[in-house]
Specification:
It is a single chain. The chain is mainly alpha-helical and about 425 residues long. It has 19 helices and 2 strands. It is globular, with a radius of gyration of 22 Å.
Length: about 425
């Protein structure tokens, strides 16, 4: 049965796809499968979510987080189809394209989590900045198949599903995050069928707030996963305890509802039932979703922009409480700040030595694999060479970045056994 929710505009790929291959899959299934079988997706298993990967076996990595987000995203699709009068058996939000968006939403993130993202953005400011979501877009469209130097040829609906931000680096006065690279404006043009943003869609939060329904589902699934599951990891790691929660609550200026959420969390800790009770919250956050119709400059072109995801204000507020707890008791802790300092130092030294060799052209040592090195040396402009150096670092896992640092700067590290 055809799904009338999508049309040829939604299914069109960035470049024409070969025909007559006999592929039984839909366009959305092909896009999802291409993500799963990339080395970039596998590398997420050794990239930081909250704690450095490898510290313990049971904490979430970027890979397990992405899998959890995809499960929540698919569940939101199922819930909406079973509850919304706006959908039907032959008119529904395709869970495969939502799953593809969820699985790939963090694929561009560098080693060491958001610390790594901030460090690379600081170092890349002379060359156009660095942003994890912009890097995801770059990989999907240009570099994810690194051996052949090409992207995965995503379809329009999938690309729109990961396009959280639509503001270019040069359009922001102080681009700390939430931007695309200036060279990516052509992908915005493709996603929106060369329809320009109306004047009221100003750069920044207003423009970035304009998302397809699949992107909105991915975004709420991501919020659900990290507000609840990062909290769970913080409790299991001993960063969030009853005593710390009591002290934090006393000085946090919470309203009555927020205080009740914290008290529920403390009861779960006392009862040793954290995972079960927070797990049920995932279901509650899914059930907080409804659909509503919208009218905008793309709503007549595609149903993906004809509908908006409405999340109950109570669920959003509850998620914000949990994120505040994690931010204050985990991410701002002395222990994580020490690791953040180390991560910043490691990536800064890696970037500077590679910048000196490949962007400034000083020396002839081969510091990167031959395929990466040759691509950089062929690039005519310093900004292009710097972007390729940044690609190489951003693709590293936590462990590979650490080993590369040791090989370059630690005199006691670098035997043949260390080179893998």
């Amino acid at each position: 049965m055809d799904n009338r929710f999508y049309n040829t505009f939604d299914l069109e790929s960035l470049e024409p796809e070969p025909t007559g291959t006999g592929d039984y899959r839909t366009v959305f299934q092909r896009n999802r499968d291409r993500i799963i079988y990339t080395s970039a997706f596998r590398r997420l298993q050794n990239k930081t979510q909250v704690f450095l990967s490898g510290d313990y076996d049971f904490y979430r990595t970027r890979l397990t987080h992405s899998i959890e987000v995809s499960q929540i995203g698919r569940s939101i699709c199922s819930y909406l189809q079973s509850t919304s009068p706006l959908l039907s058996d032959d008119f529904f939000i395709d869970p495969d394209v939502v799953e593809a968006s969820c699985l790939s939403h963090d694929i561009g993130h560098p080693p060491f989590g958001h610390t790594g993202e901030r460090t690379l953005n600081r170092l890349m400011q002379p060359y156009g900045g660095f942003e994890g979501n912009a890097q995801t877009l770059r990989m999907l469209t240009e570099t994810i198949f690194s051996n052949s130097g090409r992207g995965m040829n995503p379809c329009r609906a999938f690309l729109d599903g990961v396009l959280k931000y639509k503001t270019l680096h040069s359009e922001l006065d102080d681009p700390e995050n939430h931007f695309l690279y200036d060279q990516q404006d052509r992908y915005i043009d493709f996603v929106y069928g060369d329809q320009a943003f109306p004047l009221e869609y100003t750069p920044g939060k207003v423009r970035d707030g304009f998302k397809s329904i699949e992107c909105e589902i991915m975004d709420w699934a991501d919020d659900t996963a990290y507000s609840l599951n990062d909290l769970m990891d913080g409790i299991n790691a001993g960063f969030i305890t009853l005593e710390k929660l009591e002290r934090w609550t006393a000085g946090a200026s919470l309203n009555e509802t927020e205080t009740a959420h914290v008290e529920q969390l403390m009861r779960a800790i006392r009862d040793a039932r954290v995972e079960g009770r927070l797990g049920r919250k995932v279901g509650a956050f899914i059930a907080a979703c409804t659909l509503e119709e919208d009218v905008n400059f793309l709503s007549a072109t595609t149903n993906r922009h004809r509908y908006r995801l409405k999340v109950a204000a109570e669920a959003k507020a509850e998620a914000e409480v949990y994120k505040r707890i994690s931010l204050n008791l985990v991410f701002r802790s002395q222990e994580l700040h020490q690791l953040d300092h180390k991560a910043d130092y490691v990536l800064t030294r890696l970037f500077r030595v590679l910048e000196k060799r490949y962007v400034a052209g000083e020396g002839k040592l081969r510091l990167l694999p031959e395929t990466q090195e040759q691509a950089i040396l062929r690039a005519p402009e310093p900004a292009h060479r710097a972007r390729l150096v940044c690609d190489a670092i951003a693709a590293m896992t936590d462990g590979f970045a650490t080993r590369t640092y040791k090989r370059l700067f630690d005199a006691d590290f670098g035997s043949i056994a260390d080179l893998v």
